[in-house]
Amino acid sequence: MTTEPNLTYIAGTASLPATTPPGIQLRPMEVSDAVEIAELWMTAYPPEVVGGESVATVEADIVAAMDGEYGPFLQSASPIAMRADGAIVGSLQTVADTSWDRTPRGPFILDIFVSPDARRSGVARVLLRFAKDALHAQGMGTVGLRVLRDNEAARGLYESEDFREWRP
Ligand SMILES: CC(C)(COP(=O)(O)OP(=O)(O)OC[C@H]1O[C@@H](n2cnc3c(N)ncnc32)[C@H](O)[C@@H]1OP(=O)(O)O)[C@@H](O)C(=O)NCCC(=O)NCCS
After folding, report:
1. CATH number for position 21
2. Is the minimum distance from the CB of 44 to ligand 1 under 6 angstroms?
3. What angle is formed at CA 41 by the lines to CA 40 and CA 47, rounded to 5 degrees?
4. Does 79 contact ligand 1 (Cβ within 6 A)?
5. Which ligand 1 atom sits closest to the C-alpha of 109?
6. Does residue 1 sit within a domain?
7. Which of 64, 89, 91, 101 could form a disulfide with 115 if both were Cys (CB 3.0 to 4.6 A apart)?
8. What's 153's DSSP letter?
9. Average of pLDDT values for 27-51?
10. pLDDT digit string (tens) for 112-163?
C-alpha cells in the first residue's frame, strides 16, 4: 500500500482575534499584486517545488486562479501581508469551492506562503485568521486545504489553527 503524499484538512471558520506582527498590514490581494506575489512564491518554496517555473508562468497561474481557474476566487478571503515599506511578505489564496475529487465541498485555501525572512513571526497565522474571518462573515462555516504530509511547518501551523484531517 502506498501512502498518499497529501493530507486534506478542514477547520471551522470561527477564530480568535489575531495579533498582527509589528509593522505588518493585511489587505485583500489585487490582480496588480500578481507579479510580486509570483516573485514571493519563487522564494518561498524550495527549489524542488519551484522546478522550472518562471515568475511569468507563476504570475499567469495566479491571474488564472483569480479568474476562476480553480473555482470561484474569493478575493475577500485572499489576503496579502505587507511590510511598512509596501513589500509583500505573505499571501493566501482562497476559492469558494473546487471542482476536484477528494476535497471537501465549500471554501478551500489554494496556497499560503511567507517570505523566508519573515517567518516564525506569526504572518501565516494572521493570514489564516483574516481568511477565516472573511469566510465566517459571509456565512461560510468551514474551510479546507491540502498539505504535503512531510511539510512540518505547514502542518504545525494548520494543526495549531484547529485544522483536522478530512477524508472523503
Ligand atoms: C508554512 C509557512 C506558510 C508558515 O509561515 P510562518 O509565517 O513562518 O508561520 P507563523 O509564524 O504564522 O507560525 C504559526 C505556527 O505554525 C507552526 N510553524 C511555523 N513554522 C514552523 C516550523 N518551521 N516548524 C514547526 N512548526 C512551525 C508553529 O505552530 C507556529 O507557531 P509558533 O511560532 O508560535 O510556534 C511558511 O513556512 C512557508 O511559507 N512555507 C513554504 C510554503 C508552504 O509550504 N506553504 C504551505 C502549503 S500547504
Report:
1. 3.40.630.30
2. yes
3. 115
4. no
5. 48
6. no
7. 89
8. H
9. 97
10. 999 999 999 999 999 999 999 999 999 999 999 999 999 999 999 999 999 9
